[in-house]
Amino acid sequence: MLRCERSQVLRLIALGIAIVASLAVALGATLSAAHAAPVGTLKQFRVPTSDSEPLSITNGSDGNRWFVEGNLDSVLQSPAIGQITPAGEITEFPVDCSFCSLSDIVQGPEEGILYFTSNEAILGRITTSGEFLAPIPMPETDVLAGDLAVHGNDIWITDFNNDSLWRYNVTDGQFTRFPVPEPADVAVDLGGRVWFTAPLAPGIGELDPATGAATVTPTVRTPRQLTVASDGDIWFTARFEPQGVGRLVPASRGTPGVVTEYPLTNVGPEGIAASPDGTVWFTQSTKDNIARITDDGDITEGKVVKKSEPFGITVEPNGDPWYTMLEANKIATLQLR
After folding, report:
1. How far apart are CA 331 and CA 337, in angstroms?
2. What is the tally of structural domains in the chain?
3. For residue 181, which of 197, 193, 167 has the smallest C-alpha distance?
4. What is the CATH number of the domain that holds 275?
5. Could you read off the pLDDT of 262-297 as tens digits, one per residue?
6. Distance between CA atoms of residues 327 and 187, nearest Å
7. Between β-strands 244-249 and 258-263, what pairing exists: parallel, antiparallel or unpaired?
8. FRET partner for 163 with CA separation of 20 to 30 A, picked from 85, 144, 324, 332?
9. What is the SS3 assignment for 315?
10. What is the pLDDT at residue 1?
11. What is the pTM of this model?
12. Percent of the chain with pLDDT over 90
């Protein structure tokens, strides 16, 4: 979930930080993270449009990375979808909307089509050749479509405004609504179980699409973004105090839903993405770099770029992370080999 709806969540969460901190209890383990020296070669690429404010980023079926531009500070400048090649060549595709703010983008079930959301009650579509397809109206006009996840022929959409997750099936074109508590981000594991962050709980939610039943596992920290690691564990970021990164081991793996949280200080964990090697990468928005964490809590960081504000992140199939620099107006990649 990224801007306008993300900003609303930020305000709501800020109001509850003091309460959450006072109610924090030992809900699993809290471990210290061990840091290692920076790794990789950092490459940065400036987005052609000034102050475009790149937000979320994803892998496209064409082998390129795709990202949304927020243009949050300019009502006169149209937001855009951006494409960046492995060599760093960027092409921008302006979105035809008035006073809108883009949120998230994901590769859809169909080859060559990406889906994106905005503060309008639609599901946008763009092909990997840069052609915008007719947007898909959401079933209700007050839907605040936020973050996206894909599993099979289904696209999952957060709707914090209505305490709901929506499922859109690209085959039959049908939407299904699932009531859940204040979903901020969403991910789907290989078994089709749907996971979401519930920042106001605070906790990590799990939805069984077959029954519509949802449960929330409490966390000490306020979860922001989440991802499913290659082993099935659920990892999440907590940007607000107390900051940190956490891991939930699902009950489906033979555990009762154990949560382990790794405290961090003054780094602002935001975006998070799983790597093929089993580790997880996350952006450190206030420390101006990204970091990798293992199951043991070992953290390895990338190079710091001052005043860059890393935000969204994805990991390409070869294991190299790509991420957006909101303040620096750049797309960056950390080449590990």
Report:
1. 19
2. 1
3. 197
4. 2.130.10.10
5. 999 999 999 999 999 999 999 999 999 999 999 999
6. 26
7. antiparallel
8. 324
9. strand
10. 44
11. 0.89
12. 78
